[in-house]
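Morning!

This is the sequence you dropped in the shared folder:
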Amino acid sequence: DILSRIIYGSRSVLLVCFLAVAIGSVVGTLLGAIAAIVKGPLSAVIMRSIDGLMAFPGILLAMMMVAAVGKGKEGAIVAISIFMVPPFARLVYSLILDSENSLFIKAAKSYGITRSRLLRKHYLPLLLPRLITQFTACIGSAIMIETSLSFLALGVQPPNASWGLMLNEARQHFLQYPYLAVVPGVAISVAVLGFNLLGDGLNDLLQRRRS
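The structure's back. Tokens below.
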């Protein structure tokens, strides 16, 4: 039954995507914070590495990671999480640099507060709303990459269900039964659009609160 496979496949897609974005957000946030707070040669190395990752197309980078790690859910999680590191690192890096001239940051530094405490007590509350918005928006991108990997037989493997895997299987019978491809395609489109709209809504809400 197609509906049952769509519902069951959503579990695999969302599990892989949420775990991958969560891992990527944590690693990216730490790298961006370290680069912005520590500065010096370490900051240059981190940010140039981030720029190097951003130069690769998402699906190409994911395919390279899967080839190195292996097929399946684990490989997809690793591949997508690495792709998600740069946007979070860039966001955190720019936000921390922009806030360094704020009065409360200057006051905290004048008291000799440690860098770790400065990050926890002052920067993290400032970053959290933007990180939540970024996390939500990145879920849509992660769904596209995961379904692409599954379509190429590099992600979720049979007998597990996945939207990308359903599209792959529907290719052979597309002319006779086009709905086999249309239904998972619509599910992917609705999921990506939904998370993108949710991210935009959260961003607008946070901007209104700031103003």
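Headline: The two ends are 50 Å apart (CA to CA).

More detail when I'm at my desk.
O.
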